[in-house]
Amino acid sequence: IQRVAVLTSGGDAPGMNAAIRAVVRTAAFEGLEVMGVRRGFSGLHRGELKLIGPRDMANTIQRGGTILLTARSATWRTPEGRARGAQHLRDNGVDGLIVIGGDGSFHGADLLQKEHGIPVIGVPGTIDNDLYGTDHTIGYFTAVETALDAVDKLRDTGASHERIFVIEVMGRHAGHIALDVAVAGGAEEVFIPEDDKPIEDVIEIVKDSVEKGKMGSIVIVAEGVPGGAQGVGDAIQAGTGLETRVSILGHIQRGGTPVSSDRILASRLGEAAVYALMDGVSGVMVGRHGGDIIHTPLHETWEKRKDVNRDLYRCAKKLSV
Amino acid sequence: IQRVAVLTSGGDAPGMNAAIRAVVRTAAFEGLEVMGVRRGFSGLHRGELKLIGPRDMANTIQRGGTILLTARSATWRTPEGRARGAQHLRDNGVDGLIVIGGDGSFHGADLLQKEHGIPVIGVPGTIDNDLYGTDHTIGYFTAVETALDAVDKLRDTGASHERIFVIEVMGRHAGHIALDVAVAGGAEEVFIPEDDKPIEDVIEIVKDSVEKGKMGSIVIVAEGVPGGAQGVGDAIQAGTGLETRVSILGHIQRGGTPVSSDRILASRLGEAAVYALMDGVSGVMVGRHGGDIIHTPLHETWEKRKDVNRDLYRCAKKLSV
Amino acid sequence: IQRVAVLTSGGDAPGMNAAIRAVVRTAAFEGLEVMGVRRGFSGLHRGELKLIGPRDMANTIQRGGTILLTARSATWRTPEGRARGAQHLRDNGVDGLIVIGGDGSFHGADLLQKEHGIPVIGVPGTIDNDLYGTDHTIGYFTAVETALDAVDKLRDTGASHERIFVIEVMGRHAGHIALDVAVAGGAEEVFIPEDDKPIEDVIEIVKDSVEKGKMGSIVIVAEGVPGGAQGVGDAIQAGTGLETRVSILGHIQRGGTPVSSDRILASRLGEAAVYALMDGVSGVMVGRHGGDIIHTPLHETWEKRKDVNRDLYRCAKKLSV
Amino acid sequence: IQRVAVLTSGGDAPGMNAAIRAVVRTAAFEGLEVMGVRRGFSGLHRGELKLIGPRDMANTIQRGGTILLTARSATWRTPEGRARGAQHLRDNGVDGLIVIGGDGSFHGADLLQKEHGIPVIGVPGTIDNDLYGTDHTIGYFTAVETALDAVDKLRDTGASHERIFVIEVMGRHAGHIALDVAVAGGAEEVFIPEDDKPIEDVIEIVKDSVEKGKMGSIVIVAEGVPGGAQGVGDAIQAGTGLETRVSILGHIQRGGTPVSSDRILASRLGEAAVYALMDGVSGVMVGRHGGDIIHTPLHETWEKRKDVNRDLYRCAKKLSV
């Protein structure tokens, strides 16, 4: 192969630029050219491709967001849209496409290769960490750090006012962020979509924690939990009679300078994606498991389920004693 | 005088601990004793006083929140409640009270001195910066920095998705935080309670900015603006047809390690409060204007209005060109 | 006037980009064109000028360093070098030059206007805050924050090991950073070039502080103090027999995302510089005093001395009690 | 068992408090008592033990340093010193000791159990990550993040001045920090103790990178490399004739609020240490490999060598292309 293309798709995640950089520089190191596609599949369908070289990636490893931009594409869901995208890739002499994104993006990539025979490799870029086939996704570590920083700040106020803070973190379908933040933030309780915890138990725990003399309590809720943080907060306030505040962290968890773990993961996976294409591999996501790079068929990344760390879940419980 | 008391009251603000530390250490330097009152006026009315010495303040200058805790007090609004608080101060041999807080707290302090002749000094501790008689209040600088950090993060996502972000920052009655954040965050627009800007103009500005090729727009809204960020966001989305996201930063703006400016201001004002009591002054707030320490009668701090910096307002406008 | 040029010169400072952005956008707002000069006077002498527009400044307000680059120029110190620079400005139709930098840069600017009649305006951009004619210089606030963050980290280690840490911060001729960091960092002692404190006194203070039960002591030293932190550290270790570590913070104080105060100051001063040129003013530095923009003849900025805040100096002493 | 003791020893590391908290709370959850030993083995030998309960650990998970203090102990290296320490443990009814620290500390622990039959468990707490038997050590992630943050700042200045920055990070015997920081910081080169790279090659690489148009180069050096950053910097400056600056990050890498990964690792390992003692295990270090908790005989932790990640090393090389 001589030329590969790369795009970012779906919600942006910190470290996407580090992944693009790794693709571009690994390719350059191996004598390949790289075309950057702007605005994800939406731009691909419109033919927004441009050659990018190693120097274009200077000073990007530390930047949040994605310099290639990202977008949702309704057109890509149509066979015609994908056909046009495939044509643009062929017209530009592209031998393979690297897609940095989450499960929706991988779905689009999978269709492209199945319908048009274009080699595709997925790179897991999403803060939610909800993809099977990799221990962690690019952006996850930074999102946890940002949420934790907010929890540390809220604890200052919570402790000073001896209040309960119910904090909603991202995670529509998965409690990975919530669980990490709960353990690292020293939370009293955590609600995740994977689990069905009766609110009554939590009310008892909060009451109990006040009696033990704790100044302020922190409860972490993943956004995918029915009712969200507001529902949990209302129930706690009603059940305990204690002053309860709700804080929804929202989009700040997506942005910011990526932490080292995300930059390193992105560097490794961007590199691995180029080598996968060079090795004639297609239709897989590159991931990291332990210290190893692994390949997982794209459809498994969304069909199989990555459970949260149950040991951590039990640990969280004990440490709030 | 031989013994002073200090309390924090109202919403917590970063730098309150630095102010308590300055009171305690300046007093120690001058040979006075200090009693810390826990839980503000609520605790004063219940007699929660305890001697604190210089060593108790070790490693507190960098901590958010308030180690003396804070609370709202319904009882303090009654003459009986205040009489009991005054009695506790007399029983403990306290010659003067230093109150770190905002206008509500100063009101409570003012009544204490008027009704019971107890010397009181106010120290401006509130993130909103809405007190007359000081250029800045303790906690303000940190709140601006926290909000700005969030804006920087949201800009990453906004630019990557080419979206409009409407961001609500604290400021129920005043646009100080909003204005600073708008200028420092490079926002396209800012809405503050002091100003009545037609939403139609803003819609034009946003449309215009998109046409000029700006990738993503940031609009800052102070929480005191009617409708808040949600109202502004809905109107912009409806008026422009562009994807608009709303982010309400909320309580994270209250917490966190105080920045240097807040620690320095708190150190100066805590020191000044002790000297004011030693000089026989009472019923004033200590503040900083330019490089000078000034005294303002407590009632003026809430009766007179501190306007936002109009030059900055005009500057914000130009720089979003 | 129709066209202005802008350059950054000397050591870089966080907020320089915000100042460039303010120059470019204010100019655009007023219908003027701006040429950016790369690599300071060195680039001016070689003719490295290029038109820059408002969109070129997107996403720069939060970046450290200077997108226009900076350099020292030996050639500029010769009349021939300056003549060539003046010629480049005239050839490009530039009606005035805005120089963002420190005293050395202003000296070069002053010669340019005196020898060639080119209108020049200085904007104070240096972390040291050692320019007469402005309360603060651009970059100063961020440098203090960076140094303070380091002090907070070193205090963790110092307290855990019950050690003395002697920390050197920037400030070759001025103790502004050192003094702010000492007060905000809760240091036991501070050494600044403006003051001649016998090391013996400090040894007594450190001994005394250990006897009072303080866990770990922090001593701040400005780099301009004879012997620097190493000299002070050696003397303390020898005089007290206590384990003493020296940490020289160095260049990290120059970089990083500018804090809000630097971005706001830079925005105001960049704006003011353009209006000064439009008003026919030349040979001055724009500065901020209190809330006002003031003009100071360039030569006064380095001839007159801005003293450190003596009240703060006394305050630092008391609060380490 | 009914009562365990815990101490921190050697250099402090961010996350040590989270580990202590996990020990104390897991023990409380299981109905055991915990005695905290102050000042490591030095304090143990002097009998500085005190009961600590779950509430004593409130608001400590986010703090750098160690609330139990740490120290080096010459006495512990003598059999008499260890005998006295063992006696204090027996006198206080302690059934097992948890030692949080590095290889030196584990050596001391190993002798205690061998000579006096006291069950001991090691918890890896050191920023260097140089212990065999765990993927990562507590404090490592935070140290990398702190160093990376400094590199990001220096890159601002380096790029603005088009300079070479040679940056020394911690790692006396191991290049783990250096390697992670090099990849995440986008460095041109990295020198680690595990590798013997001819300086001539690096000079060529730096020259080459300048010719390719890179603005500023970053070279990372682990402190254990002969000559350190200063030696490398001098050689580069001499060999390239380019302006080269050296920055030694030093002790700031030890302190600061621990990042989430360190807090989570510390929570898991503190918990695991208590269960190891309850299970009758002794003489091992608890570590984490992949997602699993593993036990490694103490002596193996310093006898066996944990190599740096060679894949990462190769990756660093390619991405600086």
The tally of domains of chain A stands at: 2
Order of helices and strands of chain A: EHEHEHEHEHEHEHEHEHEEHH
Oligomer status:
homotetramer
* Largest interface, C-beta within 8 A: A-D, 51 and 51 residues
Helix content of chain A: 40-55%
The assigned structural class of chain A equals alpha/beta
Order of strands across the main sheet of chain A: 3-2-1-4-5-10-11
CATH class call of the largest domain in chain A: Alpha Beta
Task: State the shape of chain A.
Answer: elongated
Strand content of chain A: 15-25%
- Distance between the terminal alpha carbons of chain A, to the nearest Å? 58 Å
Instruction: Give the uncertain stretches of chain A in residue-range form.
Output: none
CATH topology of the largest domain in chain A: Rossmann fold
User: Can you count the beta strands of chain A?
Assistant: 11
Q: On the 0-100 scale, what is the average pLDDT of chain A?
A: 94
State Rg of chain A.
22 Å
Give me the CATH architecture of the largest domain in chain A, please: 3-Layer(aba) Sandwich
- Helical stretch count of chain A? 11
Q: Report the major sheet of chain A.
A: 7 strands, mixed
